[in-house]
Amino acid sequence: MSRTKGGFTLPGEAGYELLTLRMAEKWGADVIRDSDGTVLSDEITQAGYGIYSTICIIRDHNAWAKAHPGRLQQTFLSAGPVTAEGEELAIPVMEQFFAQQFAVNDTPDAMRYWQVWDRTEGTIVKTVETCTHTDAEASKTDQSAGASSPCWSYDPEKQTVIIKHAKPFHRYSVSFLAWQMWEQISMYNHVTNDWGDREHLMPVDPVYPDVQEYLLGWLEDWCKTHPATTVVRFTSLFYNFTWMWGSDARNRNLFTDWGSYDFSVSPLMLDNFAKEYGYALTAEDFINQGKFQVTHMPPTARKRDYMKFVAAFVADLGKRMVDLVHRYGKKAYVFYDDSWIGVEPYGPDFARIGFDGMIKCVFSGYEVRLCSGVNTPTHEIRLHPYLFPVGLGGAPTFMEGGDPTRDAREYWMRVRRALLRVPMQRIGLGGYLHLTEDFPDFQDYIETISDEFRELEALHESGKPESTGIRVGVLHSWGSLRPWTLSGHFHETYMHELIHVIESLAGLPVETGFLSFADVAEGALEHYDVIINAGRAGDAWSGGDVWKDPELTVRISEWVHRGGTFIGIGQPSAAEGTDTYYRLANILGVDEDTGARVCHGKWTFETEDPEGLVPEGCCLPVRGGRFLTDGKAQVLLSHDGCPDLTRYCFGEGRSFYLSGYSYSPENTRLLLNLITAGAGKKAEELPYIAKNPNVDCAYFPESRTLIAVNLREDAQETEITLPGGEHLSVSVPAGGQCILHEI
Amino acid sequence: MSRTKGGFTLPGEAGYELLTLRMAEKWGADVIRDSDGTVLSDEITQAGYGIYSTICIIRDHNAWAKAHPGRLQQTFLSAGPVTAEGEELAIPVMEQFFAQQFAVNDTPDAMRYWQVWDRTEGTIVKTVETCTHTDAEASKTDQSAGASSPCWSYDPEKQTVIIKHAKPFHRYSVSFLAWQMWEQISMYNHVTNDWGDREHLMPVDPVYPDVQEYLLGWLEDWCKTHPATTVVRFTSLFYNFTWMWGSDARNRNLFTDWGSYDFSVSPLMLDNFAKEYGYALTAEDFINQGKFQVTHMPPTARKRDYMKFVAAFVADLGKRMVDLVHRYGKKAYVFYDDSWIGVEPYGPDFARIGFDGMIKCVFSGYEVRLCSGVNTPTHEIRLHPYLFPVGLGGAPTFMEGGDPTRDAREYWMRVRRALLRVPMQRIGLGGYLHLTEDFPDFQDYIETISDEFRELEALHESGKPESTGIRVGVLHSWGSLRPWTLSGHFHETYMHELIHVIESLAGLPVETGFLSFADVAEGALEHYDVIINAGRAGDAWSGGDVWKDPELTVRISEWVHRGGTFIGIGQPSAAEGTDTYYRLANILGVDEDTGARVCHGKWTFETEDPEGLVPEGCCLPVRGGRFLTDGKAQVLLSHDGCPDLTRYCFGEGRSFYLSGYSYSPENTRLLLNLITAGAGKKAEELPYIAKNPNVDCAYFPESRTLIAVNLREDAQETEITLPGGEHLSVSVPAGGQCILHEI
């Protein structure tokens, strides 16, 4: 039985009333919720707990949708490219796509937005109508006009685009609009849990006024008929993250992106956009040569406009729904994980929606920070594993071969260190509660977590924890619009080193902010002591072509010269076109050879770490091709004569270059050592930082309490520096935490 | 004592007459030569052997050079970039450079060509003179003109460029002309062999008419005074490969490139160029942002023009020298390794110089092919190791710790397989003969080599060897101008996978040609059955931006469709800007993700090799990020779910993609299997190809002789397919060769 109570949301399950109430008691729950696939019985809703009801507002209206054709959500899809082997080419547009998810929208209204591309040339193919007209014009002026130019028509029977006068061996693709016939979260849950012939839920599109009217009416009815519900938990609002499935089981997942706006498009949305912004978007603004507008790549100005437009629309309608919920005396929380397009929680429109709470499912520490920083009264994290038979990538969880306790412990140990830094009002779980019956050790471990969580939160209630006060700015394309995330969970973004950096920062006693390149132009560097740029050349995290603007490098160089610390990781500031590949090579003292310097000699160097900045056990991913620009960088780590970690002094400041980064307690300590280098200190010399990098600490001055958490599965001993310089010896149990009072 | 005689050039050494004549006998030499650092005594020159005399025509004229200032060779150098920390910046131009190699040329004639660059902006900084003028103009029209623009002046006392009104935190560099005070081969040999206070040889520049006159006079005198010489061996003609040394011992080798034309520039050469081509080259055409015009990168049109111009000049003067040598009854050979700028042996100007022979020093098989294909009556390869105490990278050779026999065997085994394919008239050695005295096993092994060589050449005298007849074209930026090489020796270019491919091709029974992208536009594909494109994105071997021309991909696609075989290795046809990174992804069935497809799903596949195309022991370098475009490629090799070797069928043809390639007998056999795939056969099913990839064969139909050479250090057994289909069993001794008559 948990020692403390409250701040815990339990997934209840009709048919398992006894279990539900027993676990509520055991875990100290104060709230019970339903989940996708479960319902709550009266016995549960009337047991004296707060009740969350999950609503995904745009789905589960199949009858209405069928009675009102043309009201489903849509997306652009790209068929092909197909290489023309002669002068006529047929492209069946749906061939590549999962027929249960998509259906062609070939209404005249949609066909206005279709495009056929010659991808070999990068030109748009004309329609037969335009072609005929143009050819007639051409033949008036030039009898010897020669071969006809390519033109396309559409055969609705065969759902096929026919290109006539194709250029042989050019590659053609078709950008077209498709209806979404199956809402993708429902589709995923259905397929994952073998829901058989359960109906496929369709997503309706609230861009249409009649859909808005219908949904508001439906919501009002729902509120009336659910008096026990205290919190309406919106799974989030109207448009899902993008997830396109393919027709072939060997390539089912065609494209997925948490931050891509593809699934919000429709002729009406695009027409409305054109009216407000004074220019029209085209299919290519979404299709982007078949690459789509990936969150991991720098956004175009047009994508930014479209995001703003959708956010304003979502906020307007969202506010009407939240107001309605409030009128029924209920609170409205938003679950931020699935369909968050237009619900950017750090965007300028979010606050006016009026949500009372933000719920975020978390695997990692950075997700705690993402949730905690949102401007709502209540913040809740939903822990993993989800109570489903299978988890990530189809791995067994609550079934034979699974070890949900191991999973829960692993995630909690990542999550908890971030809870040292920021308050969090609530935790919870989701899924089928009955699955825990065969895993009593899991039930016990959740009790441990819930007690540890409440202990920790009690500290935050007394006041803020101490911080080094060092202001760290993470510089990337999205800046403060999308802090504390890249796009989705750690296991989805692990290949980007920035997520490792952010995960490290999530538990560090520094003041972390996120800034965009545009912010730099507006003087934002002044608010930071340390700037981190970490990414792959050309991506949204390194920055891409924005580095071709001299003002950016000049501002950062000047800022370092006046004492700033710049940390570049991977391919920071990389952009082709000038003498160096890294545009900040002059302050990094390191550059990368992209091929043109293969005959250039390289500076030799000694590898040394006289100040012991590199902790034992630190291990960075290494890459080739890096070299010293002028031989003056100090090399702290290297492999095969190639520098991996360097320090370069520039004016009053300094920069560090890391060829790669991955999250680990030791690497996190390295990062902290680099961050504190501007103060001329190793991190462990600062107050309330453990000498042992496997232990994270927070000191709460108001309550004179120090908490130390163990990042490892075995017990850890450590010394912790106190402000006077004396040291405290602390033992932290395996995977556990330790609270010291009267410090 | 060698069993056969002739075709062998021995380096003699005055003071070691007995040794010289003994080794001449042992190795079957018919010619004795001198080397850099050795001379021949009368006793040697009058012993009845042919005599080669080595002449590097542009050096060893120090007295004349000192009496005639301003006649040394020059180059552009780039000082900096240096970041301006304020509004005034001083750049001492020689600081980075080896003062014994270079001296500033700050004569008014040279200063015309100097440039100062703002590398941050990519703009040229004006000189003080231009600036003052412009500022005065500006102030006439606009009183509030604001800050002055940057301008530079030069302080000859301090050899320093001063930039006033610099833009703070911009990076500036100075492109300037420098005299070459020490000819770099002489410098290298001097430093490598500790020649102490021996005079530093200066290179004079024959662009000046008085230098031409002097050198022709000197050569005539030389011919008169060296009656014993039968062959004048030019080391090569007038301009050296580029080798810039730095001031700091930690970075002595700043830049080296066998095919770069930097060391041929001078104000006069540039002025002459401008007169003939109607436009002027600038410092930036050579400096190229400090990257120089690396042979491994695609050449600009201006570089091609300059190469043509220099080649014509070198050929005109070279012909005068060769004619002079001929007038004295001597032959003129050219040594192709050091100073070959303007002496492109496959260039259009080479033949008219009139050389009687081409000598090439070789470590590898491809260098044999390079030498053999040149249009001269005689071809000679100089084997390695060079008779110096130290060899490659300073490793011990003819000294304690060295094993010259091992080295000689390793090189010979690489070289010999190419000698199966093409005739070669002569072999030889170079350096200090006396160093071999302590290495009798080396003396014995050279005897073995010389006999094996003469055996092999006797076969070629009977007629050409059989070939599969398959026509293989290597497609890169240089095409047939620079076949059978990238830029220098294997150990200098091993990081480019194309050299591994070329090394494999050097010994294969196929008809190999080299074609440029321009050749494709002119229909050259018709001459080939197989095309290979192997390189890194953007480099001269993959091709870079040339792939943005749709005509190129269309022609190749069409050619494959009609039955061609395309082999793409590494990043073939790679160029950013369209939907695929490899512009031939449509015929490869494979593409590479450069970041924009990180959220795209990938086709799963089975890895299989049903036809056994991949020999046992085959091992390719592997790379990440490759994926199947449409799932139709057959994957023959893979790692971690990433395809490494694939086959894709397109029309009547097919393509293969290899993520990497390295030379080995097994990988060579894989390559041959891919080349013969168009014939629907594995290589070992074709006549005169050994089943065992460690054995290479050639069959000479005129003499009905088959030779098998062993590529390994242990004895090999193999079956060899004969035209009727029967098999021959052959044993080849360790590292040796085996000749079978009456086949």
Quick structural gist:
Two copies of one chain form a homodimer. The first copy, chain A, contains 20 helices and 32 strands.
Question: What is the mean pLDDT of chain A?
Answer: 94
Most extensive contact: A-B, 67 and 67 residues
| Total count of domains of chain A | 4
What would you call the structural class of chain A? alpha/beta
**Biggest β-sheet of chain A, characterized?**
8 strands, parallel, barrel
CATH superfamily of the largest domain in chain A: Glycosidases
Secondary structure tally: strands of chain A = 32
Describe the structure.
- The structure is a homodimer of 743-residue chains.
- With 743 residues, the first copy, chain A, is an alpha/beta fold.
- Chain A has four domains: 250 residues, Alpha-Beta Barrel (TIM Barrel); 107 residues, Immunoglobulins (Immunoglobulin-like, Sandwich), CATH 2.60.40.10; 215 residues, Rossmann fold (3-Layer(aba) Sandwich), CATH 3.40.50; 46 residues, Sandwich (Immunoglobulin-like), CATH 2.60.40.1180.
- Chain A contains 20 helices and 32 strands.
- In chain A, a hairpin with a 5-residue loop joins strand 30 and strand 31.
- In chain A, helix 8 crosses helix 10, helix 12 crosses helix 13 and helix 13 packs parallel to helix 14.
- The model of chain A has no long low-confidence stretch (mean pLDDT 94).
- At the A-B interface, strand 14 and helix 18 of A face strand 14 and helix 17 of B.
